[in-house]
Amino acid sequence: MVSDVVSGLDEVFHPTSVAVVGASSTFGKWGQMILTNIIGGGFKGKIFPVNPKSRTICGLRAYRAISEIPDSVDLVFITVPARMVPEVLNQCGAKGVKGAVVISSGFSETGDEGRLLEQEIVNICRRYGIKLIGPNTMGIISPYAGLFATGVHSRPGPGPVAFISQSGNMGNQLIHWARQQGIGISLFVGSGNEAMLGCTDYLEYLEQDPNTRIIMLYLENVRDGRRFLEVAARVNYEKPIILLKGGRTQAGISAAASHTGAMGGEFRIFQGACRQAGLISVDAPAELLDLSAGFSSLPLPKGNRVGIVTLGGGWGVVTADKCNENGLVVPPIPDKIVDTIGKYLPPFWSKGNPVDLVGTRDLEVPVVAVEELLKYEGIDAVITMGFVGRHELVSLLIQTTREVDKTAADWFLEQVESLSSRYEDDYVAKMVELMEKYEKPVIGVSLTRSEKGTVRPVDGEKYSGVFYETPENAVNALSKMVTYTLYHRRRRASL
Amino acid sequence: MVSDVVSGLDEVFHPTSVAVVGASSTFGKWGQMILTNIIGGGFKGKIFPVNPKSRTICGLRAYRAISEIPDSVDLVFITVPARMVPEVLNQCGAKGVKGAVVISSGFSETGDEGRLLEQEIVNICRRYGIKLIGPNTMGIISPYAGLFATGVHSRPGPGPVAFISQSGNMGNQLIHWARQQGIGISLFVGSGNEAMLGCTDYLEYLEQDPNTRIIMLYLENVRDGRRFLEVAARVNYEKPIILLKGGRTQAGISAAASHTGAMGGEFRIFQGACRQAGLISVDAPAELLDLSAGFSSLPLPKGNRVGIVTLGGGWGVVTADKCNENGLVVPPIPDKIVDTIGKYLPPFWSKGNPVDLVGTRDLEVPVVAVEELLKYEGIDAVITMGFVGRHELVSLLIQTTREVDKTAADWFLEQVESLSSRYEDDYVAKMVELMEKYEKPVIGVSLTRSEKGTVRPVDGEKYSGVFYETPENAVNALSKMVTYTLYHRRRRASL
Q1: What is the Cα–Cα distance from A154 to A120, expressed in whole angstroms?
Q2: Are A25 and B408 an interchain contact pair (Cβ–Cβ within 8 Å)?
Q3: pLDDT, tens digit, 9 for 90 and up, residues B139-189
Q4: Strand partners, B310
Q5: Which of A295, A319, A343 is the last residue of a domain?
Q6: Chain A CB contacts of B115 below 8 Å
Q7: Using a CB-CB distance cutoff of 8 angstroms, which residues of chain B are in contact with residue A351?
């Protein structure tokens, strides 16, 4: 049975009409940032600005109050000062509004008076059956509903990764990074003060949300640890939960206490419980995204044995070290595979794993090497490095050649440029095809930082290419995916 | 007394004339990549292409052999097949060439035959007093001499960081990253097979090189461990050495053995010795650059007590945790400082360290907060987060506003845009000024990844702004700087 919380939230996160109370034309006000983001993000439903002093805002008719809006309203964003929020919510209740995102601050985070006010708005919402998000939240984004309603106007596309954050600025930053890295988002919620709905409720919602396959969580404190762990363990079994806990140390706990007004509890106990629940713990914000990219785009590895295919030796060494230090194994490979790959390489090549392709320019050999390793039952995953991102360096060489060698034929340089660019796209497509064929992950490392982002989707394919910026990020993501697989297997065996 | 190795190398790395033997117009050949990079990089000395089959290459007169060049030649790059290298070096010797960079592979890395050939070229170079770099190297760059001679046409500006790499592709990647991050380079040497000159020799050279203040080292194996450690310890006392050792684990050691043909030795023993010598060990390539940025641009911290000034609470929590986990302390701050900063903030602000500026838009308050912390004798360094990189988000907001609100005044939006952009530059300049005033480091974290790079120099100033992409990178760099300071202090006390 779907719980009440969950069924109601679906309408809140996929509204057909929204209102912004406190909507404004004044640049930089919350009521301006939220409204312009909703309009600019292309929300297809109705949008009602509410402001007693304006007739139109951003070309839309403005209303003096929620009660004056002629249509029904599913979701309301509230940016007016805290003391005005109860009255607005009362009007929302009378109007039959389903959800309210209270952006306004000045509640429990400010002291006793604010705490009373917060209790008051919870009571009003309960009375009317309004789902309350926040207060003191930086908003939500719901890309499948075309709804972007935060102060940050960075808009990642729809995708399988949900993100719940107890910190506003962490949310802003990670939304922006997600867009830059090409990570698709199913839902973002800044949970704010969690006066009514908390992280555990959102997890229960995401559990049954068909758009969500992976969940990122930034937590500073959990109200009801027992319920959280029970729900998280259950959800995590189907949808990996990647968790960054703020307040792991005394310094972090004090910092968290002073900015959210809540206590963090004993981290070691919490950490142990999370490990038992199989949650994937990280300790830095960037890791949340790295792991989301891997978990959402690649098949899970069935074990910890890694094949490495590298354009150059140094990277192979560094990556083998990192694998060892992270519980992964870089096993020897059979002579048969060595012989097959060796046909494409000079006689003095490394003849083992890592497969060092000694700077080859043969465009076929990296593909052959990756496939040979994937075929082999003694390898669970392949890390491939340097074949994507090389184009940027080729372009630099072409540019100099054009500048300094007037005899160089333009048509030829253009052909090289387009060949090299096309090769990278083909390589990504090939890796995706091989992942589907062998159901093993291929984790890429780009030779240079690319504008194209970490995740490189291929039209119509189940998996996407993932090309990290550094070998250490690739190894870290893979090793956490292995940990998750092993947990999953143990848990399945025990059920 | 300056050793012979060292005095000779100065002329090699600052040549007035160079030749490329194997120079070519064929796109993508080593002789083409090296020659075009030297020309395109703007080398001011004479450049002599050598190729028996061409009259001109890249508009320069080509010579059939070294012996036919009418002028003197300081430095020769050799890209012809290995078996032809001895004859070329003989000609170089007769010509009085001072140094040879042998790009060609096919020497000791390929087996016994290659090993003999390598010994032969060493003997020739010894006979003539030629400094031999390589063979099997990807080249050198010497930005102060305007000399860029590698296959990667990415050209970082001149600066205080030298980089010696035993791996070619690691070198390529890091040179490219250094340019992207704005890290200035004094010298890069790919040491290749180290047939004559090895890492220890280059360290001795860098010890007295006035352009070099920081040294990055990527090592896979060291021939003479005792001499290396002795020299490294001495050099490191004056110029911090940041070391990435490839082959830390068995998997890494086997990978290194197969690609360089040399054994790595026992890492734990080596690691212990490096720690005793005070070298700064890292375990990933990207860290080499992060630490170079910090060490080359900031004053060293005198202790481990950190003040944190953050635009938002979540980042403060995460950073405080990371500090604690890396041996740094985030101490409470006196009421007087709290009161001074509090004048600029709403009454419910965090009132402590981390100083959470709750999303302030007041452009003055972050500067005040940083200075108050720097002034305080209980703080050794400040981490400041979110005030640089915000401009990108402001731009996105301006863009939407322009799109959706036709009543928004263009002149006003333009003014906001330019104000916000200028503010970031002013903020960087102010941080640099404060570092000079208080001789304490200010480590920045950018809210978004910026095209402007990690290092932000300010005209005419001793220090530069450093703005990392993530809090964890900032904390890691700072904690290693503290470790170096403490080592330095202990060592000085014991001298």
Answers
A1: 34
A2: yes
A3: 999 999 999 999 999 999 999 999 999 988 889 889 999 999 999 999 999
A4: B356, B385
A5: A295
A6: none
A7: 258
How many other C-beta atoms lie within 10 A of the C-beta of residue B337? 21
Q: Which residues in chain A are contacts of B404 at CB distance < 8 A? A: 36, 39-40, 58-59
Asked if A416's CB is within 8 angstroms of B347's CB, the reply is: no
Are A286 and A189 contained in the same domain? yes
Could you tell me if B366 and B282 lie in one domain?
Answer: no
Reported as a single tens digit per residue, the pLDDT across A111-167 is 999 999 999 999 999 999 999 999 999 999 999 999 999 999 999 999 999 999 998
Range of the structural domain that residue A258 is part of: 4-295
Question: How near does any CA of chain B get to the CA of A249, in Å?
Answer: 5
Question: Are A64 and A211 members of one domain?
Answer: yes
The answer on A239 and A311 residing in a single domain is no
Q: How many residues does chain A have?
A: 495
Helical pair A410-438 and A365-375, crossing angle rounded to 10 deg: 10
Task: Determine, for residues A318 and B396 on separate chains, whether the beta-carbon distance falls below 8 Å.
Answer: no
pLDDT of residue B142: 98
Q: How far is A259 from chain B (nearest CA, A)?
A: 6
Q: Tens of pLDDT along B115-143? A: 999 999 999 999 999 999 999 999 999 99
Cross-chain Cβ contact B449/A59 below 8 Å: no
CB contact under 8 A, A449 and B180: yes
Residue A355 and residue A257 share a domain: no
Is B246 close to A397, i.e. CB distance below 8 A? no
Q: Of the candidates A285, A329, A470, which has its C-beta nearest B286's C-beta?
A: A470
Distance from CA of A128 to the nearest CA of B (A): 31
CA atoms of A345 and B190, how far apart (whole Å): 23
Please check whether residues A267 and A380 belong to one and the same domain: no
CA distance B143 to B150: 12
B283 Cα to chain A: minimum distance (Å): 8
Q: Which residues of A are less than 8 Å from B220 in CB distance?
A: 314, 317
Q: Could you tell me if A172 and A138 are in contact, meaning their C-beta atoms sit under 8 angstroms apart?
A: yes
- A280: its two tokens: 């994937």
Q: What is the mean pLDDT of residues A345-352?
A: 87
CB A217 within 8 A of CB A192: no
Residue A282 and residue A160 share a domain: yes
Contact between chains at A256 and B317 (C-beta distance less than 8 A) = yes
Tracing tokens 């990933």 back to the chain, one arrives at B284
Give the C-alpha separation, B182 to B180, whole Å. Answer: 6
Q: Cβ–Cβ contacts within 10 Å for residue A493, how many? A: 7
Alpha carbon distance, N-terminus to C-terminus of chain A: 21
The closest of B204, B255, B58 to A323, measured between CA atoms, is B255
Instruction: Identify the domain boundary among B295, B317, B341.
Output: B295
Please report, for the domain that includes residue B360, its CATH number: 3.40.50.261
> Into how many domains does chain B fold?
2
